[in-house]
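INFO batch 0412 | record 1 of 1 | parsing
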Amino acid sequence: MMARRYTQQSNIRTSGLLRIYYVALFLPISHNKRPSTQHSEMAESSTPLLADENTSHIGPNDDEQNSPSHYFKAVLKVLGIAALVLSALTLALLIANQIILGSAPLSWSPWWTQKVSTGVIVLIVFSIIFAFFNTFFNLPFLINVVADIGFTTATIVKVVNFIDAFPNSSWCQTRYGYPDRTPIPPHPRCEHWKLVATILMAVIAGFIILLATIYVLRLLLRSVALYRSRFWKRPLALNFPTGEITFQISLRVLRQESGRPSATEGEAPHGPVYL
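INFO prediction complete | emitting tokens
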């Protein structure tokens, strides 16, 4: 019995010593970890609940990606090349048509058709120049929009006038001489050249309609790109030059004596003295 009690007391003492050793060993570690834990808890509590996780990914290229010129680059490039090729073909056909109208044996000179064709040639030349620069160079977005609006309007007006100037029956009608009113029949090949001019002008009108369609598509795509860019939500930055404006005013008071001094010998009389 005594041995058993002694064994139990020794076990109790041993377990007590182990507890004291455990507390002495791990208590400093827990105290050292407490400030970092509190600091992390304070950092988490100070973090806003509605913080945007994507703000760290915002870079300087976001404005460039939201630019209107960033949208539909490939499609606008293809449309620009198509406008360039189509304008070049239309110009070649217009020059050929002008040569035919000037040399064909028609009853009357088609001066109105030639005048309308000249206006279309001028428009097509400007279209070729703009399509070339727009294809191989990066023009500003605003210039492209203004040019698309101008070319769309001009091509629609020109194609309507061009169709109105198509060959008619007066090109190969019988004329009458003056003053005896002798009938002059048309040239035997007048109808042939009239048919050639009609077919050629129909092809030209079709090309101009396609060109107008291209400009309309370009204008619509740029309008969609302008809407997607949300340009009205961006702050408008107005930078005024800094400088300094200085005004300097100088006043000079002139006093005039009331009396005139008498002239001394050897001195000529003089007028009033101003100080």
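INFO post-check: Strands lie at 175-176, 183-184.
INFO record closed
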